[in-house]
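Protein entry
_____________
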Amino acid sequence: MISYIGKRIVAIIPIVLFAILITFALIQLSPVDPAEAYLTAAHIHPTEELLAEKRHEFGLDQPLFVQYFRTVLNIVQLDFGTSYYTNESVWEDVKARMPATIQLAVSSVAFAILVSIPLGFVSAIYRNSLIDYMSRLLSFAGASIPQFWLGYLLMFFFAVKLDLLPVEGRESLLHLVLPMLTLSFALIAIYTRLLRASVLEQLQESYVLYAKTRGIKPKVIMGKHVLKIAISPVITGLGMNLGKLLTGTIIVEQVFSWPGVGRYFVEAIFNRDIPVIQCYVFLAACLFIVCNLIVDLLQLYMDPRISLKGRADH
């Protein structure tokens, strides 16, 4: 198991280097001149002399492989440069906004798990019952309703009509409720559908029949065996969606004026703040990699046969 974990961690290094390469290539292929973007953000008229001076300062007049090597060194040291718009360290700006995004993403995932696992499990056990039909309807609605529309809908009912919840900022936990519900609604639909299908598949397996013939109580069979195996696809989806949420809360943060990284990224796009965009793309890649690694380790803990399978393949 230790060797499997070591191999998975070592495999991250080339993936991270490739992510840096993609980020660097996107910046190079962009029609926006970083020197011109910097001067524009500083409200300075970009003359040829100033552009040449800034290109030399940013190292843009050097060969591409030198620029890439310098970019790798800077990113390894978490040095993403200075924001063109705020004139502050990009990494410091991101660190200041990351707690808000993490709070929103983690609370949304936690709420989705608390709702979807019991709902998906019960709807599979009582197949074609009223609760099953309701959960399937919820799944269809969550998969089809756009997040921005749902956010405005919740805002209209709970803030405008009922005056129960605030809609902007992050002053208290009440400010978290509406954006959390907006993000978690789609996750509830996904996890409920995944768990229901997985439980129904496991109920057809022979080990369930053998357990029943041995006289094991149905509660033990469902809770200790079926649920433990059936929850594996949900864990996989959780890893993918957690990385997506940490970097993909852009729409919800804009709708509810949530002071997170996603809103900071949107502002950077409008301001052509290239260092911020580069930092965001790199962090998005790293978060997906780390979340998938955590999911692999969780699945390895739940099913040690994974490491044995990987060893047999080699």
